[in-house]
TrEMBL record:
GO molecular function terms noted in the UniProt entry: transmembrane transporter activity
InterPro entries named among the record's database cross-references: MFS (IPR011701), MFS_trans_sf (IPR036259), MFS_Transporter (IPR051788)
Protein name: Major facilitator superfamily MFS_1
Cellular compartments per GO CC: membrane
Organism: Pseudarthrobacter chlorophenolicus (strain ATCC 700700 / DSM 12829 / CIP 107037 / JCM 12360 / KCTC 9906 / NCIMB 13794 / A6)
Gene3D superfamilies: MFS general substrate transporter like domains
Topology relative to the membrane: Multi-pass membrane protein
Length: 423
């Protein structure tokens, strides 16, 4: 039923398409790291307590989760191109509002509103980017989704570096975040002209699936061949069916464990090194940097590994490496072993999310609905899991609270076969 464009016939157009999707992923990482890198300045400017900072972050989390939960309907209604454009503009505006709330208005409410808008824009943008990325991956005929997520990681590195430089010269938060927001919105809106994955076009109350796109270089390219006389489903029914699809739900649980491993590292590695292994704050930050570096390496190497061995063996190895690295980090008798554990942990966590998105989008006609389901489960773990680990840490300590992540990683290991390619 589904036909991908022949790579040799569409090389020039697919190259532009792929590069445009890389821009979307990289810009998302830049946006995220821009506000995160200025969080200390935001805290100081607004004179916030740790609890107040937690409330700010909760606004972002609630916005993100609401957006990703509705993202399937949004993508089906608007198409991935318009969803990404709209999301990037919302994120750009949210960055500006958060900056103005900090430096100009000195208003925690305005800053919280800006973060909520960032969250609302990010959730649907990320889901649509995964739909777009999976489509270009099919057109290329190789596993490039890990490298697309690697572009996000590089965007976070660039954003963190620019944020550190802005902080070093005491650049007002409003100027920094306003400029970052403008770059994000303009770059993605421009790149979106090359997006070609829209699997639906809305006409009144009916949703139809196109069978080609017009490539500026090569002309019409077939994407989906629908069955003769096939009636399009109502968008809400598509989402409901995706939530009842056994493979999609199992993919979500597979991604959940690996997404939790990634999210837990972001929130707890630095503190775990300081409190559990007696390291300095600087060493804690360096430890997280080591984790991110090896996760990025894993994502860029993922294309070659997946092309050679396939999804199922790679997912097994990823889950096993993450368990090994996390276990070594928790139980390391000396700090240098904990740092080795972080490197292994980062490699193991690197491919879960991108491979899960690729697997969810195996059927292009159902990609938006299924990707939204897997994204909702995965992002739910990424966003909500680390705070729950904090509650557990109150009773067992930060290091031992991370053992809960190992349990979910073990589940991911045994669920690896669900990532097998359809057809």
């Amino acid at each position: 039923m589904t036909k991908a464009a022949a790579p040799h016939a569409t090389a020039a157009g697919v190259t532009h398409w792929r590069n445009a999707v890389v821009v979307a992923y990289g810009a998302s990482g830049l946006a995220f790291a821009s506000w995160v890198s200025r969080l200390p300045a935001i805290r100081d400017a607004l004179d916030l307590t740790p609890g107040n900072v937690g409330v700010l972050l909760l606004c972002l989390t609630l916005g993100s989760f609401a957006s990703v939960s509705a993202s399937g309907l949004i993508v089906l209604r608007l198409g991935s191109k318009q969803t990404i454009r709209t999301g990037s503009i919302m994120v750009g505006f949210g960055l500006l509002l958060a900056g103005l709330g900090t430096s100009v208005l000195a208003s925690p409410v305005a800053t919280a509103a800006g973060l909520a808008v960032i969250g609302l824009g990010t959730g649907s943008w990320n889901t649509a980017s995964n739909v777009e990325g999976a489509a270009v991956e099919r057109a290329v005929g190789r596993h490039i989704m890990p490298r697309l997520h690697g572009a996000f990681s590089l965007g976070t590195v660039a954003g963190a570096g620019l944020g550190a430089a802005a902080a070093a010269v005491s650049l007002p938060v409003a100027l920094h975040l306003g400029a970052a927001g403008l770059v994000v919105a303009v770059s993605v809106a421009t790149a979106a002209s090359w997006f070609r994955a829209d699997i639906t076009a809305v006409a009144g109350e009916r949703t139809y699936t196109p069978d080609h796109f017009e490539d500026p270089t090569t002309g019409p390219i077939p994407l989906i061949t629908a069955g003769e006389g096939e009636a399009p489903l109502d968008n809400k029914r598509k989402i409901a069916q995706a939530w009842r699809d056994r493979r999609t739900l199992l993919l979500g649980v597979l991604v959940l464990g690996l997404a939790l491993a990634e999210g837990a590292a972001g929130d707890w590695v630095a503190l775990a090194l300081a409190d559990g292994h007696g390291q300095s704050d600087a060493a804690g930050a360096a430890g997280y940097g080591l984790f991110v570096t090896f996760m990025t390496i894993g994502r860029f190497a993922g294309t070659l590994v997946l092309d050679r061995y396939g999804r199922v063996p790679v997912m097994r190895w990823c889950a096993a490496l993450a368990v090994l690295g996390l276990g070594l980090f928790v139980f390391a008798p000396v700090p240098w072993l904990a740092f080795i554990g972080l490197a292994i942990w980062g490699l193991g966590a690197s491919l879960g999310f991108p491979v899960g998105m690729s697997a969810a989008a195996d059927d292009p006609a159902k990609a938006a609905a299924r990707v939204s389901v897997v994204s909702t489960i995965g992002y739910g773990a990424f966003l909500c899991g680390p705070p729950l680990l904090g509650l557990l840490a109150e009773h067992v300590g930060i290091l031992h609270s991370l053992l809960a992540v190992m349990v979910m990683l073990a589940v991911s290991f045994f669920l690896s076969p669900v990532a097998r390619k359809l057809g």
